[in-house]
Specification:
202 residues, mainly alpha
Length: 202
C-alpha cells in the first residue's frame, strides 16, 4: 500500500504533533552551496548521527545513471543480437536468390549484359530491401518501439519521452554498405563458373 506524502514546515509539524522528531526532513539548498552542504551532511551522518541517512540530488543522479546504463546495456545487447540476425538473414536471402537465379543471370549475360551491369542490378536489388526495411522501421517499427518503451519505462516519472530518427539513419549506413558487399561477393563466386556451365543448370 502506498501512502500519501504530505510536506509541511517545522512550525506546522510541531503545532500538530508536538515536540516529536520528524521522520523525514526536506532541505532546500542554493545550487551554489549544494556541493559544500552535501559534503558537510555526509560527514555529519557518518560521524555524529550514523543512524540518519540522506538522499541528495547527486544521489538521485547517480541512481538514474545506473538505471540508464542498465537500459543501455540490455537494450544495446538485444539490438546487436537482433541486428546480427537481420544481417545474416539478409545475406542468406541474397545468396540463395542469386544462386537460384544463376541460369537467369547467365541467359542475360549471353544476350549482352555485362558484368558491371549485373553487379549494379544486384546492388540495386539489395538496396531496395534495405530501403523497404528503413521505411518500415520509421513507420510501423517506430510505433511498435514507442509502445514497448511506454510499457517498460512509461510509468517511471524520471523518464522523458522523445523521438528521433537519427539512430535509424546511422544504422542504415552500414546496412547499405552490406547490401553492396554481399551481392558482389556472391556474384564473384558465381562468376567463377563458366557461362556454359550456368546455362546448363536445370
Amino acid at each position: 500500500i502506498i501512502g500519501e506524502v504530505v510536506l509541511m514546515s517545522d512550525a506546522q509539524f510541531t503545532e500538530i504533533y508536538g515536540d516529536v522528531p520528524p521522520m523525514q526532513v526536506n532541505i532546500d539548498v542554493e545550487p551554489d552551496s549544494l556541493e559544500d552542504f552535501e559534503a558537510w551532511l555526509t560527514g555529519y551522518t557518518e560521524n555524529e548521527a550514523p543512524n540518519l541517512s540522506f538522499v541528495s540530488r547527486n544521489t538521485l543522479k547517480g541512481e538514474f545513471e545506473g538505471l540508464r546504463n542498465m537500459y543501455l546495456g540490455v537494450g544495446g545487447t538485444l539490438a546487436f543480437v537482433l541486428a546480427l540476425i537481420g544481417v545474416l538473414n539478409f545475406v542468406n536471402t541474397m545468396t540463395a536468390s542469386i544462386y537460384a537465379r544463376r541460369r537467369e543471370f547467365a541467359m542475360l549475360q549471353s544476350v549482352g549484359m555485362t558484368g558491371g551491369q549485373m553487379k549494379r542490378t544486384l546492388i540495386f536489388e539489395g538496396a531496395q530491401y534495405i530501403a523497404l526495411t528503413l521505411i518500415f522501421t520509421l513507420t510501423a517499427g517506430a510505433g511498435i518501439g514507442l509502445m514497448i518503451t511506454r510499457v517498460i519505462a512509461g510509468q517511471t516519472w524520471l523518464f522523458k519521452e522523445s523521438f528521433t530518427v537519427l539512430p535509424s539513419v546511422i544504422c542504415a549506413i552500414p546496412l547499405f554498405a552490406i547490401c553492396a558487399v554481399a551481392p558482389l561477393a556472391c556474384y564473384k563466386k558465381l562468376a567463377r563458373e563458366s557461362l556454359i556451365e550456368r546455362l546448363r543448370v536445370e
